[in-house]
Automatic annotation (TrEMBL):
Transmembrane segments: none annotated. Residues 177-201 form the Ice-binding protein C-terminal domain. Residues 1-17 form the signal peptide. InterPro entries: Galactose-bd-like_sf, Ice-binding_C. Keywords: Signal. It comes from Pelomonas parva. Coiled coil: none annotated. The keyword Signal applies. This is PEP-CTERM sorting domain-containing protein. The keyword Cell inner membrane does not apply. Pfam families: PEP-CTERM (PF07589).
Length: 206
């Protein structure tokens, strides 16, 4: 009895546990960068450069701290770039929750700090920018996006003055916005088992 109830509870809780991040290397931590340093890399796990100089600028707590982990990236590398990640197995028509953190670069004017976020080539929201000041803060942005059949592409591009100084990005996540149908099925199965046990127990003890 107890073990059956426990099983039902575990089934229902696991069905509604936080969905995993579908973004590969969304926090940009897989490339080793010395603390307090930065580098230009032609590769970055999970990501590709769609436009601009063919490098990623990965920074380890230099000119600002990472929002998550140690690394973050700056999109105006040696010029404005567009980086992207594609998702091949999303459910067509389903909604997904996109989240990321943006910060303007310290002591860089808003006209040079812009970043745009695009889902399947369509811009989400407005251009993110800000006057860096001496200690710029990270800001989280969240969007709901709908998946098309086939590949879906998330991209970020730096805009404004292309001068090797620009906005930063960290902690990108994409998660399923609602529980999967299998999650509901597991929950219903768990509740059904509990109800059946309760009825049986009631008939015996009465
Ligand atoms: Ca990070
Ligand atoms: Ca710039």
């Amino acid at each position: 009895m107890k073990s059956l109830l426990l099983t039902a509870a575990l089934l229902s809780s696991s069905a509604f546990a936080a969905d995993p991040n579908l973004v590969t290397n969304g926090s940009f931590e897989t490339t080793a960068v010395n603390a307090g340093n930065w580098l230009l890399s032609p590769t970055l796990e999970g990501w590709s450069v769609l436009a601009g100089p063919a490098n990623f600028e990965i920074r380890n707590n230099v000119v600002g701290s990472a929002q998550d982990g140690s690394n973050f990236i700056e999109l105006d590398t040696t010029g404005n770039t567009t980086i992207a990640q594609s998702f091949a197995s999303l459910t067509a028509g389903a909604s997904y929750a996109l989240s990321f953190w943006y910060a303007p670069r310290a002591n860089v004017a808003a006209a040079s700090n812009g970043i745009e976020v695009l889902w399947n080539g369509q811009q989400l929201g407005t251009t993110l920018t800000g006057n860096g000041g001496s200690a710029p803060a990270w800001t989280q942005y969240s969007f709901s996006v709908s998946a098309l059949a086939g590949n879906n592409t998330l991209s970020f591009r730096s805009v404004g003055a292309s001068d090797s100084l620009g906005g930063s990005l960290d902690n990108v996540s994409l998660t399923s916005a609602v529980p999967e149908p299998s999650g509901y099925a597991l929950l219903l199965a768990g509740l059904g088992a509990v109800g059946l046990i309760a009825r049986r127990r009631g008939s015996v003890t009465r």
